[in-house]
Design brief:
mainly alpha, Four Helix Bundle (Hemerythrin (Met), subunit A), 3-stranded antiparallel beta sheet, 3 strands, disordered N terminus
């Protein structure tokens, strides 16, 4: 666990964001036990704000609790498969609500984020790549209702954790991802809603299937394939 100094009497939000970031970037590993005594001392807070921060992490699915013991969630293939299928289906829905409203400025934003990803790849900067990638995809579902928007974001974060832990940040060096992003922008320019949804679904499914194949090649990801087929069948 990183022991970077944190200002005393940190707020609930500060503690939540600091722990959340360390879980997502792998500094606190999957399955690690979180000592409330140590965390309270480290952040200079009482148990009440610390427990609230842990409760927020639990709601996001990043930790589990047993009594007073908190542990970073342990992830398995079934969890990843469910996350990937949900992302594919929710992203398709959000895309159908967003793409018809996209403006030229939105498309320019997507191109800018693509450039940022390319720069991050050249500098071997996985964190910068992830930020730009998330912003790129955020444009395609920005028009969805807030609840769907939040759910997609949380699923994306959980998916990112798998990639960090199992692929050691290699997605930022994936040349095929750049081609897929270019196809998504091209379909957005034409406002071809089904084609945007299909391209996003194929992109998300490919990355998920690659992670699962590398981790457990004997596993049959039928749920992901079913979700993909539902979206590809859009008219």
């Amino acid at each position: 666990m990183n022991e970077a100094p944190t200002a005393p009497t940190a707020s609930v939000g500060t503690v939540h964001q600091a722990l959340r970031q360390q879980i997502l970037d792998g500094s606190i590993p999957s399955g690690a036990v979180l000592s409330q005594v140590n965390l309270a001392d480290r952040f200079g807070v009482s148990r009440t704000p610390l427990r609230e921060a842990l409760r927020m992490l639990q709601e996001e699915g990043l930790i589990t609790t047993e009594g007073r013991r908190a542990r970073v969630a342990v992830f398995d293939l079934r969890d990843l498969e469910a996350i990937s299928a949900q992302r594919i289906l929710l992203s398709a829905l959000a895309t159908t609500l967003t793409v018809p409203r996209l403006k030229a400025s939105d498309l320019e934003q997507m191109r800018m984020h693509m450039s940022e990803m390319k720069i991050a790849s050249g500098q071997d900067d996985p964190k910068g790549w992830r930020i730009a990638d998330r912003a790129f995809h955020g444009v395609t579902f920005a028009g969805a209702p807030p609840r769907i928007h939040r759910d997609i974001g949380r699923l994306a974060e959980r998916n990112a954790l798998y990639q960090i832990v199992w692929r050691r940040d290699q997605p930022h060096l994936d040349v095929q991802t750049e081609d897929e992003h270019a196809r998504i922008i091209e379909a957005c320019e034409r406002q071809d809603v089904p084609d945007v949804a299909r391209n996003i679904a194929r992109h998300q499914a490919r990355v998920a299937l690659m992670v699962m194949a590398q981790t457990a090649p004997e596993h049959d990801p039928a749920i992901v394939r079913s979700a993909l087929q539902l979206v590809i069948g859009l008219d």
